[in-house]
Amino acid sequence: MLRYIKRYPFSLLVISSVIYLSFFRPPSTDLNEIPYLDKVVHVCMYAGMSGMLWLEFLRNHRKFQAPLWHAWVGGLLCPVLFSGCVELLQEYCTTYRGGDWLDLLANATGSLLGSVFVYLVIRPRIWKTNCR
Length: 132
Known about the structure:
Blueprint: H1 2-7, H2 9-23, H3 37-60, H4 68-93, H5 101-126
Helix pairs in contact: 2-3, 3-4, 3-5, 4-5
């Protein structure tokens, strides 16, 4: 466990922030009148989480070859599954927030966008080895 804390500190910080933002009661503001602003926030949160998981994976595996499918599982599949668990917990364990299938779709979209961006744009610049 301590190994993961040392190797993925920023990812754990982002995950903790997403957990907090998913379960706190947001204040009522004029921004609530903007339609689907909540979905944009979900896309940004999960794109950031997925991107950070990818970046730290690539940083930690620079010196030796690692299967790239590990990054796809950890950077795309895990955030989507995490998102599903959060939505279920919001639906059944909180009284002030309900789970929303559109939130899950927005979270999956954000995870996909973050993963694809890091894979296509950033990975070729920082991961010089030819990993499979």
